[in-house]
C-alpha cells in the first residue's frame, strides 16, 4: 500500500504545474467531503422533519430553509467534479464530424471560454455575497449570503478545472480510495 501523498504525486515537468495539480486535488478532496456532509445533513434534516410532522404532529421551523441550503451547497460543490471528468452538458452533433485535431483545438478553446465565464461568475458572485451579507434568513440568524458563497466556490473550482483542461493537464485522483476489494 502506498502512502496517501504518493498516490497524489503529480508527474509534471514543472514545479508550478505539480503544485497546481496538488492544490486542485486538495480542493477536489475537500469539496468531495463537503458534498458528503451537505447531503448527509440534508437527508437527516428532511427525515427529522418528516418524523416530526407526521409522528409528533409538530414541525422544525428552519427545516425547509436549511435543507434547501444543504441542497444548494451539495449541487454547486458537485458541478466542478462533473466538469473535471467531462460529464457536463454539451451538444457535439456538428463537432464529431470534424477531424480529431480540430476537435481537440475546439475543446481547448471552449475550455478557455468556460474558464473565462467562470472567472466572470466568480467576480459577480463576490458582489452578490457582499450585497446579501446583511440579509438574514427568515428562520435562522445566519446570513442569506451562504447561498451565494456556494456559487462563488463553484465558479472558482470550475475555473481551475477548465484551465487544467485547456492546458491539457491530467487531473490527479481526488476521490477517497475504495477500502474494500483487492489490495493495490
Topology:
Blueprint: H1 4-7, H2 15-54, H3 63-85, H4 100-132, H5 146-166
GO molecular function, one term: transmembrane transporter activity
GO biological process, one term: C4-dicarboxylate transport
Keywords: Cell inner membrane, Cell membrane, Membrane, Transmembrane, Transmembrane helix, Transport
Description:
The protein has 184 residues and is mostly helical. Helices cover 66% and strands 0% of the residues. The protein has one domain. This is TRAP transporter small permease protein. It is found in: Cell inner membrane. Part of the tripartite ATP-independent periplasmic (TRAP) transport system. Keywords: Cell inner membrane, Cell membrane, Membrane, Transmembrane, Transmembrane helix, Transport.
Query: How many independent structural domains?
Result: 1
What coarse outline follows from CA principal-axis ratios?
Answer: elongated
Contiguous runs where pLDDT drops below 50 for at least 5 residues = 4-10
How helix-rich are the residues, as a percent range?
55-70%
InterPro entries: DctQ (IPR055348), TRAP_DctQ (IPR007387)
Organism: Halomonas cerina
Protein name: TRAP transporter small permease protein
Membrane topology: Multi-pass membrane protein
